[in-house]
């Protein structure tokens, strides 16, 4: 059963920031698909819940050529799935969005909620990492921007401090990129991944690799990317990647999988992902 709490749905960012300053410990609510489970199970008892969905800045979902795509904190995962710009320019983001839970859940769940919940297995994190996403955070001193790569600090932990609200995420504009997202889960549609991998090939031919569920936080595999730069864009490199990626991750065993299986499946997904990019073309 839910404990009692005060609920506010402010119409402006100023009102929201003032409320959370006056009421320390206020929990932010977006789609509620993670938060309501925590509250229903009384895993956390809170006195104040602030619903961000009427804050105008969080509703912004806008692409500007030369600047990129801004995804506000109230934008749902289904809105992202159905956006042509996302499909055309940031394919791995669309594929990850399509893989998250069920259609009904995606109608509520937000991309920013997925990031702020900071699960090591958050599906939308790896595609955003390979696209160099930047998190826009509002607080008492204005807006600060943090690269997503520096946003996660541990299991379910981020750089956010009390009094702050994420208003959205910015993806830089890209040209001629291809990208893929692949995930292995116990069951399709209702579970976090056992492992998830995103690979992006930039218009200039640079490969970027991000993973989830193989470390305490979602990760960008920078050292692996360095090694990939000197290799041909070929099936042999994809085969090499299958083994090499295991040297760059430290998965654990938990209810979803053993560490050994995670290592194995990460290699398989990475090889398959690179082969898919090769099939899309480019030298
Ligand atoms: C049945 C089921 C299946 C699921 N399947 C998947 C899956 O396949 N893959 C996957 O990755 N996830 C899955 N999830 C988890 C969840 O749906 C996602 O993480 C979702 O994207 C969370 O978004 P939300 O808007 O519902 O977040 P909420 O529950 O509203 O918030 C999540 C957390 O982020 C904080 N928060 C929200 N917005 C902000 C903000 N603007 N600023 C600062 N903090 C904020 C909240 O306080 C809370 O701590 C599943 C959940 C369920 C219940």
Account of the protein in words:
The chain has 283 residues and is α+β, with helices and mostly antiparallel strands. It folds into 3 domains: 46 residues, 2-Layer Sandwich (Uridine Diphospho-n-acetylenolpyruvylglucosamine Reductase, domain 2); 117 residues, Uridine Diphospho-n-acetylenolpyruvylglucosamine Reductase, domain 3 (2-Layer Sandwich); 103 residues, Enolase-like, domain 1 (2-Layer Sandwich). It is built from 11 helices and 14 strands. A hairpin with a 2-residue loop joins strand 8 and strand 9. The radius of gyration is 19 Å and the shape is globular. The mean pLDDT is 96. It binds flavin-adenine dinucleotide. Flavin-adenine dinucleotide binds next to strand 2, helix 2, helix 7 and strand 10. The site of flavin-adenine dinucleotide (FAD) has 32 residues, from strand 2, helix 2, helix 7 and strand 10.
